[in-house]
Every structure is written in structure tokens, then in C-alpha cells.
Design brief:
Layout: H1 2-23, H2 38-54, H3 60-79, H4 84-114, H5 119-152
Length: 153
């Protein structure tokens, strides 16, 4: 199961990296609480419109990688009892970001991409997406590291 888990984790890291290339624009304004500049909002919103709405069905590949990783972790937990502790720890490291992405990041990205909200709300969404993606990046990076370490043992 480790090769599948490492591949899924690597794919998710690549997707997070692409998302963060746009998200980091908000970090220049992290001390400010007001609206982000229009050029920042339009850049981030256009990206999320493309990847959440216009890129279908390719956008479903991310969800598929998440589901595959979770299923492979369940299989690893049940079929490899000697790795149960590593698998359960990995489940927390991967499951947390998957849940965060499913419940908050994707809905926020779809909403930001639609640009139906006032600039203040779009700014809040952009900041929230960036923060959540940084959290996801930490979790998925640790998940891949744990799986790589376990595979090499």
C-alpha cells in the first residue's frame, strides 16, 4: 500500500503547490484586515474559477486521489497489522486535510471563483483558503514523510 499512498500524497502536494502559488498573494497583506487589492482578488478568483468550475472533469482527479489515499490507508490498517500505528497516524495526517478541503476549501474556492460576493467577503475567502492550504500542506507533507519512512524500514 505504501507506493499508492506515496503517489497519492505526492499528487496532492503538487496540487497544493499550484494552489499556493496563487494563495500566497494574500500574505503580502497579512497585517491588514481590510479588502485585498482588486488585482490580487481577480488573480486568485480567476484561478479558482478555472480549477473548480471550468476544469471539469479534471478537477475530480484531486477528489479521486483523496478517496484513493483514504481507502489505501484503511486497507493498510486492516491488512498490515505491523504498521497499524503508522497507518493510524497517517490517517490523521491525511484525513485532516481531506476533511478540511472537502468541508471548507473547495466550497470557499468555488464561491471565490464565482465573484458574487463583495470585495470584503472575497478577501476573507482568499485569506481563509490560503490559511487552510498551508495547514493542508503541513499535514500532507508529514503524511508523505511518514509513509516514505515506513516504506524504507
Amino acid at each position: 500500500m505504501s507506493p499508492i499512498l506515496i503517489l497519492c500524497g505526492g499528487f496532492l502536494l503538487a496540487v497544493l503547490w499550484m494552489d499556493l502559488m496563487f494563495d500566497v498573494q494574500v500574505l503580502r497583506y497579512r497585517g491588514a484586515t481590510g479588502e485585498l487589492p482588486e488585482e490580487v482578488l481577480s488573480s486568485i478568483a480567476a484561478y479558482y474559477r478555472r480549477v473548480t468550475t471550468l476544469a471539469r472533469p479534471m478537477g475530480h482527479a484531486v477528489g479521486l486521489a483523496m478517496v484513493l489515499a483514504l481507502l489505501a490507508l484503511v486497507a493498510q490498517i486492516t491488512r498490515e497489522p505491523e504498521r497499524r500505528a503508522v497507518s493510524l497516524f497517517s490517517l490523521a495526517l491525511c484525513g485532516g486535510p481531506v476533511l478540511l478541503a472537502t468541508l471548507r476549501v473547495v466550497p470557499n474556492a468555488v464561491r471565490l471563483g464565482s465573484r458574487i460576493d463583495p470585495a470584503a467577503e472575497q478577501s476573507r475567502l482568499a485569506r481563509a483558503i490560503c490559511r487552510d492550504h498551508i495547514i493542508c500542506l503541513c499535514g500532507i507533507t508529514l503524511f508523505v514523510a511518514v509513509q516514505l519512512f515506513a516504506a524504507l524500514r
